[in-house]
């Protein structure tokens, strides 16, 4: 039957391919490169008629090709505090800050902080109430001496 004939032919083809695989030819690298070039240069399909579609570089000028989608999140109107803190970060990165000023950009550790506050407490200006009491005591002392 026809099916058995097809099966027989398939078996014959596989046997012939196996025989060809055993007898490998030794070919130089240059020869294989030349074969690849000739096969890649071979035209595909019907090249007798020129193509309607000619490839050309894209031109995104006014009234020409439609440009690709860009990231336009920069152009969003951000809240004022966001823009100011971003500008501040940029300036801090770009400027060279003197050491005397830069020391205030970092926070102190707990022990140093308590020592500093104790020192500042001694030199704290007096309140209006304490001043009034001090002046009253001075006036009383002056009145007692007379």
How would you describe the overall organization of this protein?
With about 150 residues, the chain is mostly helical. The protein contains 6 helices and no strands. The chain is elongated and about 145 Å long. The N and C termini lie far apart (about 150 Å). The mean pLDDT is about 80.
Distance between the termini: 148 Å
Strand content: under 5%
| Number of helical stretches of at least 4 residues | 6
Q: What level of helicity do the residues show?
A: 55-70%
Shape: elongated
Sheet of most strands: none
Structural class: mainly alpha
| Secondary structure: number of strands | 0
**What average pLDDT do the residues reach?**
81
**Which H/E pattern describes the elements?**
HHHHHH
Q: Can you tell me the residue ranges where pLDDT is under 50 for at least 5 consecutive residues?
A: none
Radius of gyration, whole Å: 46 Å
């Amino acid at each position: 039957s026809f099916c058995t004939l097809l099966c027989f032919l398939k078996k014959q083809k596989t046997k012939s391919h196996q025989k060809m695989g055993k007898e490998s030819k030794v070919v130089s690298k240059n020869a294989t490169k030349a074969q690849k070039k000739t096969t890649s240069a071979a035209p595909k399909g019907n090249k007798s008629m020129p193509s309607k579609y000619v490839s050309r570089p894209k031109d995104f000028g006014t009234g020409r090709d439609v440009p690709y989608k860009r990231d336009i999140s920069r152009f969003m109107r951000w809240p004022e505090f966001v823009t100011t803190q971003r500008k501040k970060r940029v300036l801090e990165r770009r400027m060279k800050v003197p050491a005397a000023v830069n020391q205030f950009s970092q926070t102190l550790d707990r022990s140093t902080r308590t020592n500093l506050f104790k020192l500042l407490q001694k030199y704290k200006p007096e309140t209006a109430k304490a001043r009034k009491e001090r002046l009253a005591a001075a006036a009383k002392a002056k009145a007692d001496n007379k």
